[in-house]
C-alpha cells in the first residue's frame, strides 16, 4: 500500500515536470513565431533555460503544495480556491502589507523567502534569477 502511494507521488512529480516542459515549449514557439513576424531580435538560449527552470520550480512547488493540501483536506473546491488565492490574490495584496502598523515591513521582508510570494512576483517581473536561499527553500 505504501509503495503505491510513493509511486503516485513520483508519477505526480513526473507529470508536473512534463507539463512545465510543455508550457515552456509552447511559450518559446509562440515567441519565435512572433519574432519571425515582426522581425524582432532573437531570443537568447540562456533565457529559454532560465524560463524552463523557473517553470519547473513554479509548477513543482505549487503542484506539490496543493497535492499536500489535497491529502489533508480532500475537498476539491477548497484546493482550487487556495490555488487561485496563492497565485492571483497574494501578489496583488503584497503592496498593501507595509500599511499594517508595526509589522507590515517585517512581513514584506519575509515574503522574499516564501515561495508562493516570490515565485508569483517573478512571473510578472521577468527576472528569473534566484538567490541561494530561494533555491534552497523552493526545492
Give a quick precis of the structure.
With 139 residues, the chain is mostly helical. It has one domain.
- What would you report as the Rg, rounded to the nearest angstrom? 18 Å
Sheet with most strands? none
Shape: globular
Please mark out the parts with pLDDT under 50 across 5 or more consecutive residues, or reply none.
none
Topology as a string of helices (H) and strands (E)? HHHHHH
CA distance, first residue to last residue: 27 Å
Average pLDDT level: 78
Structural class based on helices, strands and sheet pairing: mainly alpha
| Number of separate structural domains | 1
Range of strand content: under 5%
Helix content percent band: over 70%
Number of strands: 0
H/I helix tally: 6
What is the oligomer described by this structure? Answer: single chain
Amino acid at each position: 500500500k505504501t509503495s503505491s502511494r510513493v509511486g503516485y507521488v513520483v508519477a505526480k512529480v513526473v507529470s508536473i515536470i512534463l507539463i512545465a516542459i510543455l508550457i515552456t515549449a509552447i511559450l518559446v514557439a509562440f515567441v519565435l513565431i512572433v519574432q519571425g513576424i515582426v522581425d524582432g531580435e532573437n531570443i537568447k538560449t540562456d533565457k529559454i533555460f532560465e524560463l524552463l527552470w523557473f517553470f519547473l520550480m513554479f509548477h513543482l512547488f505549487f503542484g506539490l503544495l496543493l497535492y499536500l493540501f489535497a491529502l489533508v483536506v480532500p475537498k476539491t473546491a477548497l484546493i482550487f480556491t487556495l490555488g487561485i488565492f496563492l497565485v492571483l490574490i497574494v501578489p496583488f495584496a503584497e503592496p498593501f502589507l507595509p500599511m499594517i502598523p508595526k509589522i507590515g515591513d517585517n512581513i514584506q521582508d519575509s515574503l522574499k523567502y516564501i515561495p508562493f510570494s516570490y515565485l508569483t512576483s517573478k512571473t510578472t517581473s521577468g527576472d528569473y534569477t534566484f538567490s541561494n536561499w530561494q533555491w534552497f527553500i523552493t526545492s
